[in-house]
Design brief:
about 325 residues, alpha+beta, Porin, eight-stranded antiparallel β-barrel, 7 helices, about 35% strand, elongated
């Protein structure tokens, strides 16, 4: 699923680059955006693409539980247009990511075997919420404005492509069930080492235990959008942005089930009790189930990612200077 998204975005970027390379810049018209600075705000929905949740995009959006808890992200950005087809953007955003294995309930109830992926995900019964701060620096390509005298450049509705680098801070949580009251509360899980990460005697990774993951990470944002110029100073837009990351612990699920003895050995008693209640929550759906140590909990071969689809509003700061290509 993640590979298909990335391949599609890269294909769009390559196509746009080929188009703009062949275009010839010319004297700008009134309908072509003039170079200079602009400020923008954006707000929209977010999605976490990790081990928790569904395997496919269609199941992700089409299951009956997804829309019970939509999550959002918003922020602001500054933009400098150097040429009608090329701009630089720096932005900061804050939002929430969320995923839940109960998104597989519809398919799990129709499964013909307990070994089917949807059934196993549903039985795993994990969920995650992560508050996230991010900053990014991106290049914006406006492919239809490579030649300001073309008919395409005259249109106020313009597609664009984004690519860049960024950094983010996240804090994963999982919901803990109070069996007496039936209520749930969100608990920080990074320091519980639910898969034994970073807690080996030597502090080095082994066959089963990986290194502890930092909550500060880098990402590579790739996306595309459609913007509509309103007069000379304003614009509205809608854009999709996918972030490639270099961690598999956005949802705090990555590799294998540790043993309960591990938590008693490496964690204080209070933390150990919470960790044993959270590392495997299958018992909530199937009481008495026992997970075999080192059995699969997630897929450590595929990194996590996240995305947003948002609406933006841009204010262009008027600039009376003549463009450098005049």
């Amino acid at each position: 699923m993640r590979k298909n998204i990335v391949r599609s975005l890269l294909a769009l970027t390559v196509s746009a680059a080929a188009f703009t390379a062949a275009a010839q810049p010319a004297i700008p018209r009134e309908y072509v955006e003039m170079p200079g600075f602009s400020l923008g705000i954006n707000f929209g929905m977010t999605d976490l693409w990790g081990d928790i949740g569904t395997q496919g995009i269609v199941d992700h959006y089409g299951n009956s539980n997804y829309w019970d808890k939509p999550c959002f992200m918003g922020g602001m950005f500054g933009r400098y247009l150097a040429h009608p087809m090329l701009a630089a953007r720096f932005g900061i955003n804050y939002g929430t990511l969320y995923a839940n294995d109960n998104w597989n309930q519809d398919k799990a109830e129709k499964a013909k075997s307990t070994e089917e992926d949807a059934f196993q995900r549903y039985l795993r019964n994990q969920d995650v919420r992560a508050n996230i701060w991010e900053a990014n620096l991106m290049v914006e390509f406006n492919p239809l404005r490579g030649n300001s005298e073309s008919r395409a450049a005259q249109k106020r509705m313009q597609p664009y492509i984004l690519a860049g680098v960024g950094g983010f801070h996240f804090k994963p949580q999982s919901s803990l069930l109070n069996e007496r009251t039936g209520d749930r509360k969100w608990v920080d899980v990074h320091d519980l080492h639910l898969e034994g990460e970073g807690q080996t005697p030597t502090g080095k990774p082994t066959e089963h235990y990986s290194m502890k993951t930092s909550l500060w990470q880098l990402n590579v944002p790739l996306g595309f959008g459609l913007r509509w110029d309103i007069g000379d100073q304003y614009a509205l837009g809608i854009e999709y942005l996918y972030r490639i990351t270099f961690t598999d612990r956005l949802d705090n699920v990555s590799s294998e089930f540790a043993s309960k003895d591990y938590f008693d050995r490496y964690l204080p008693p209070e933390k150990a009790a919470v960790a044993k209640a959270l590392y495997d929550k299958s018992y909530e759906l199937q009481p008495g189930i026992e997970r075999r140590q080192w059995s699969t909990r997630g897929n450590k071969e595929v990194k996590d990612g996240y995305s947003s689809i948002s609406i933006s509003f841009i204010y262009k700061i008027m600039n009376n200077k003549s463009p450098w290509w005049f």
